[in-house]
Amino acid sequence: MRIIKWLLSAVALLAVAYLYPGVQVASFGSALIAAAVIGLLNMIVRPVLVVLTLPVTIVTLGLFLFVINALLFWAASGLLGGFHVNGFVAALIGSLIYSLLGLVIEAALGGLLSKR
Asked: Taking a C-beta distance cutoff of 8 angstroms, is the pair 95, 70 a contact?
């Protein structure tokens, strides 16, 4: 099931690039690698950043989490060659679209699993 989620996340990343010109993805292979790197950053780096920025997150009523997501999205583009984000604002918009598509993927996969 993780492989299906990874493949759908890569498709979601291609959709972000199609919907928003501030994000470019060179190919499906680049999208697969970028989806894996974004997933790893979210799994390893994001919890540390959330804890370190907890006071700011509380003061902003959780809105700073959008900044953290954008920074990780932007960081992934800095690490990869076939995935490019044109600055922080593009990372913020791209990460919002990618997160919304991720929610749709989770809901769809959750619906498929509950029917089994």
From this structure: yes
> pLDDT tens across 32-82, in order?
999 999 999 999 999 999 999 999 999 999 999 999 999 999 999 999 999
pTM summary value: 0.90
Query: Pick from 4, 6, 12: which is nearest to 94 by CA?
Result: 12
Phi-psi region for residue 23, left (φ > 0), alpha (ψ -120 to 50) or beta? beta
Amino acid at 95: S
- Per the listing, tokens 């995935």 go with 83
Contact 100, 9 (CB under 8 A): no
**At 8, is the secondary structure helix, strand, or coil?**
helix
